[in-house]
């Protein structure tokens, strides 16, 4: 055993030395790394690592995302009330005013949960098409422009569903559903490409050494810089979400749903102007052809003969160390298939891309908005509490970036990306446990007890629990921490581990995992009604906790490969391979 350990250490040192030698060989004037000092192997291992500054192009794209998220969350935050609650008596806009509950369609909590969960699913499925269009035909920037136009049409249809004269009739349901589909389609095309585009504005890919003002020599790590880009990208997302959600909840309550859909649409109109302004400033990757079909064909070849009736055995064989190694062209000899025109390096890139797809986390539950309607809101709109999530994110993202994460690195604590995601599962589970406890006391303190969340008095007025709605704060703050740990890190991991020509694809598959989460959530719609809501939150919490445990035991070995995956250097560009693979071999430094 000791001998094996020494061999492993020798192999690791040899591998790192090889990477270092490759770096030295690539020390050329490329316009990106000119004049930089690259670290020695000893400096790689001993010097503290820091992030680089973020280019202004990235902030421009983040502002586009801010406007898009303002419109997305500003409109969707009122969906639960629009679908679930009935149109208030005498109202032609759905407004509930000071003491009433806003509403429109009156489909109930199950109908609301079903439609909003479908919307989430749809928004996370369509990125697959967005990635294919960008990679094969239009490129990321042009696909984003088309996505903005489609989503704008969807927002206009949502406005139509809520205007007086439509909202009072059953036709509002049809218009609203069409608006969801069109808006979700545009959102999906947008989401697959905006995240890779913002990170691509930072072009350095190699470690280099600088001396700080205090005289300390540190290593500037591109992967930490991408992490910082996504931290502030997510900050912009939540600034847009916070402002949009607060404004629209009050618009819905005091004016009507038509205003809650119109204002986000007006803000969304900023997107095309900012995109046009920066069109010649952005780093734009041209379409290189989709590698999805070839990657799937390679996976099928690697999986051949590894299937078994025993699911445990199948899992072990599909995740074995030699799964990708045995599929490399160099291992096929005279039996190499005619379609296998790529090299071993491309197989490593596909493996790396699929590893990046393996992270996902979906934790927000729209039932929390419904829960707020069953407690004493003291004049607040029941859906305004959801703003605690983006508010907490706006506070804690800079704290994590400027204080907590640097302090951990100074202390030598390796809080890697995969460890962050694992912790995110557990904080998400804690958020659902908090919600379950709150729901238990809602049942316990209202006049109906466990038969319903709200009752009616002798005059037909709704009677809610005396509990103050602000006790939901714990759930939203814990959800915010889970997003910082899991969602932001997931975006970073998906981008940094994906080969250049697979970034939109990997990001779309990453988002598709969230669609699967929404589909699973759809299966629990039956629990989204009284008196089963404690079970609803409890089951979600338990599932998140179990998933966190399974996730860590699945990826703990991958965690040790972090530097290796970050430093994977692609081979030289081969036109013949690129033609066969649709640009499948990228010249990555």
UniProtKB/TrEMBL annotation:
Biased composition (Basic and acidic residues): 7-24
TM region positions: 140-160, 172-190, 229-248, 255-277, 390-408, 420-442, 507-529, 535-555
Any one annotated GO CC term: plasma membrane
Gene Ontology molecular function terms on file: dipeptide transmembrane transporter activity
Subcellular location per the Swiss-Prot or TrEMBL entry: Membrane
Keywords noted in UniProt: Membrane, Transmembrane, Transmembrane helix, Transport
PROSITE patterns per record: PTR2_1, PTR2_2
Domain of life, source organism: Eukaryota
Family annotation (PANTHER family): OLIGOPEPTIDE TRANSPORTER-RELATED
UniProt protein name: Uncharacterized protein
Organism: Sphagnurus paluster
């Amino acid at each position: 055993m000791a001998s094996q350990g020494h061999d492993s250490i020798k192999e690791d040192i040899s591998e790192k030395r090889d990477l270092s030698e490759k770096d030295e060989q690539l020390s050329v004037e490329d316009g990106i790394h000119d004049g930089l000092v690259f670290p020695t192997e000893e400096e790689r291992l001993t010097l503290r690592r820091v992030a680089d500054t973020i280019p202004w192009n990235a902030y421009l794209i983040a502002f586009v995302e801010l406007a898009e998220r303002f419109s997305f969350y500003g409109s969707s935050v009122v969906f639960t009330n629009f679908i679930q609650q009935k149109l208030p008596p005498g109202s032609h806009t759905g407004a509930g005013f000071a003491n009433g509950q806003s509403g429109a369609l009156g489909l109930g909590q199950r109908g609301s949960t079903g439609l909003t969960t479908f919307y989430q699913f749809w928004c996370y499925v369509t990125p697959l098409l967005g990635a294919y269009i960008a990679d094969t035909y239009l490129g990321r920037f042009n696909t984003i422009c088309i996505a903005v136009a489609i989503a704008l049409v969807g927002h206009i249809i949502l406005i139509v569903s809520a205007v007086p004269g439509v909202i009072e009739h059953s036709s509002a349901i049809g218009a609203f559903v069409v608006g969801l589909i069109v808006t979700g389609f545009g959102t999906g095309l947008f989401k697959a490409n905006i995240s890779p585009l913002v990170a691509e504005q930072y072009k350095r890919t190699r470690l280099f050494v600088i001396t700080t003002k205090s005289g300390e020599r540190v290593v500037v790590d591109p992967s930490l810089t991408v992490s910082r880009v996504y931290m502030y990208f997510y900050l912009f997302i939540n600034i847009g979400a916070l402002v949009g959600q607060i404004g629209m909840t009050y618009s819905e309550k005091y004016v009507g749903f038509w205003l809650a859909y119109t204002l986000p649409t007006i803000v969304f109109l900023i997107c095309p102007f900012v995109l046009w302004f920066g069109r010649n400033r952005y780093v734009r990757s041209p379409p290189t052809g989709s590698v999805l079909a070839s990657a799937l064909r390679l996976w099928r070849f690697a999986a051949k003969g590894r299937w078994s009736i025993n699911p445990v055995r199948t899992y072990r064989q599909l995740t074995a160390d030699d799964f990708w190694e045995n599929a490399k062209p160099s291992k096929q000899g005279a039996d190499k298939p005619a379609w296998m025109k790529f090299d071993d390096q491309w197989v490593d890139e596909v493996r790396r891309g699929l590893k990046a797809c393996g992270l996902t986390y979906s934790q927000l539950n729209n039932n929390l908005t419904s829960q707020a309607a069953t407690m004493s809101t003291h004049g607040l709109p029941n859906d305004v509490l959801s703003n605690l999530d983006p508010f907490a994110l706006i506070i804690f993202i800079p704290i994590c970036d400027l204080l907590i994460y640097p302090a951990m690195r100074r202390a030598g604590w390796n809080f890697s990306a995969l460890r962050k995601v694992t912790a995110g599962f557990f904080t998400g589970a804690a958020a659902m446990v908090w919600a379950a406890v709150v729901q238990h006391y809602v049942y316990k303190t209202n006049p109906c007890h466990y038969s319903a969340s709200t009752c009616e008095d002798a005059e037909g007025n709704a009677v809610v629990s005396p509990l103050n709605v602000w006790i939901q704060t714990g759930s939203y703050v814990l959800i915010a921490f889970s997003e910082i740990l899991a969602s932001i890190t997931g975006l970073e991991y998906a981008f940094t581990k994906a080969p250049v020509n697979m970034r939109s694809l990997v990001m779309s598959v990453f988002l598709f995992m969230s669609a699967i989460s929404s589909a699973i959530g759809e299966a629990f719609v039956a629990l989204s009604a009284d008196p089963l809501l404690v079970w609803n939150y409890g089951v979600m919490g338990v599932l998140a906790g179990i998933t966190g445990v399974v996730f860590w035991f699945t990826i703990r070995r991958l965690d040790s490969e972090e530097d290796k995956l970050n430093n994977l250097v692609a081979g030289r560009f081969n036109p013949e391979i690129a033609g066969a693979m649709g640009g499948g071999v990228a010249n990555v430094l």
